[in-house]
Design brief:
Helices cover 74% and strands 1% of the residues. By secondary structure, the protein is an all-alpha fold. It has a two-stranded antiparallel ribbon. β1 and β2 form a beta hairpin.
C-alpha cells in the first residue's frame, strides 16, 4: 500500500468519526426546536379558543342589546299610539299666557303689514286660547274704533272681519260666544261698539247661548247693551228669559226704551207666559207702550190659536 493511499484512508476515518460525534448534537437541537413548535402550537390553540369564547360573549351581548332595543322600540311605539289616541294635551294656564304673548306680537306684525289673512288666522289662534287670548284681540278692536281710517282695510260694513270669508271660522269657534260676552263688559270699547257685537253672537237657540245672554243681561248697566241682549233673546225665542223680563218690567228703574224692547221680544217668544206679560203691559200708563203691547199680544194670541192642539 502506498503512502498516499494510506493518508487518504486515515483522512476518511477521521471525517467519519467527526460526523458520528456531531450527529447526537444535531438531533438534540432538532428535538428542542420541535418542542418549541409544540409549545407555540399549544399557545396558539389557547389563544384561538380564548378568542372564540370572547366572540361568543360579544355575540350574546349584542343579541341581548338588540332584544332590549326591540322591546324599547315596541314600548315606545305603544306609548306613541296611546298618546295619539288621547290627543294633544291642553295647555297649562302659564303656557296659554306665554302663547298669547307670542301671538300678540304676531298680530301686531300682521296689522303692520296689512295682511288680512294673517290677522284673521292669528285672531283665530288667540280665540282658541280663551281668556288669555282676549286682551290682544280687544287691543285691535280698540285701535279699529279709535282710528278707523288707518284700519279701514280690515273692516267690512262697519264691523270687523264681516267682509272676510274666514270670519265664519271665528264664529264657529268654541270660545267665540265667550269672547262676545267679554266684549260686552269691556269698558275700553264704546257702548255703541259693544252693543253692535251682540249681532255677531251665533243665533243658535240652546241653554248655553241663552244662559250666557241672561248672565250678561243681569250684569248690564247700560241701556243700549241691555236692549241688544233683549232683542237677541227674542230672536232666538229664549223662553227662559220671560221671568227675567218680568223682573225688569216691575223694576221702576227700567227705562222706557228697555220696556219697549222687552215688549217686542215677548212678541217674538210668543208663548203663553209671554202673552200673560203682554196682557199686563196693555194697561201700561204710557200709551205708546200699551199700544205696542196690544199689537204684540194680538200676534201672539193668533199664533197660539193656530198652533196644533195636543191630542185629547
Amino acid at each position: 500500500m502506498s503512502v498516499g493511499r494510506s493518508i487518504c484512508i486515515v483522512t476518511l476515518m477521521f471525517v467519519a468519526l467527526g460526523a458520528a460525534w456531531a450527529l447526537p448534537r444535531f438531533v438534540a437541537e432538532d428535538s428542542s426546536d420541535i418542542a418549541g413548535l409544540r409549545d407555540d402550537n399549544r399557545k396558539l390553540h389557547a389563544d384561538l379558543h380564548q378568542r372564540d369564547r370572547t366572540i361568543e360573549r360579544l355575540k350574546n351581548k349584542i343579541g341581548a342589546l338588540q332584544e332590549q332595543n326591540l322591546n324599547s322600540a315596541t314600548e315606545l311605539n305603544d306609548a306613541l299610539k296611546k298618546l295619539a289616541a288621547v290627543g294633544p294635551q291642553p295647555l297649562t294656564p302659564q303656557q296659554r299666557e306665554e302663547e298669547a304673548q307670542k301671538l300678540a306680537e304676531t298680530l301686531r306684525g300682521a296689522v303692520k303689514e296689512q295682511d288680512t289673512g294673517s290677522v284673521l288666522k292669528t285672531y283665530e289662534n288667540l280665540l282658541a286660547l280663551g281668556e288669555p287670548g282676549f286682551p290682544p284681540m280687544v287691543d285691535l278692536l280698540v285701535q279699529m274704533e279709535t282710528d278707523p281710517d288707518a284700519l279701514g282695510w280690515l273692516s267690512g260694513d262697519g264691523n270687523p272681519f264681516l267682509h272676510a270669508k274666514e270670519s265664519l271660522d271665528l264664529m264657529r269657534q268654541e270660545n267665540f260666544l265667550q269672547f262676545q260676552m267679554h266684549l260686552l263688559r269691556n269698558s275700553r270699547l264704546s257702548v255703541r261698539f259693544r252693543a253692535a257685537q251682540v249681532r255677531n253672537i251665533p243665533l243658535v237657540a240652546g241653554a248655553d247661548t241663552t244662559g250666557l245672554l241672561l248672565e250678561a243681561l243681569h250684569t248690564s248697566s247700560e241701556d243700549v247693551i241691555t236692549q241688544s241682549l233683549i232683542r237677541l233673546l227674542g230672536i232666538i225665542k229664549a223662553e227662559q228669559a220671560v221671568p227675567v223680563f218680568e223682573s225688569l218690567l216691575v223694576d221702576p228703574s227700567t227705562s222706557y226704551e228697555v220696556t219697549g224692547t222687552i215688549i217686542e221680544a215677548l212678541g217674538q217668544i210668543a208663548n203663553v207666559s209671554a202673552a200673560a206679560l203682554l196682557e199686563r203691559q196693555t194697561r201700561n200708563a204710557n200709551p205708546d207702550l200699551s199700544g205696542a203691547a196690544k199689537r204684540a199680544l194680538a200676534r201672539v194670541q193668533k199664533n197660539l190659536d193656530q198652533a196644533p192642539k195636543p191630542s185629547e
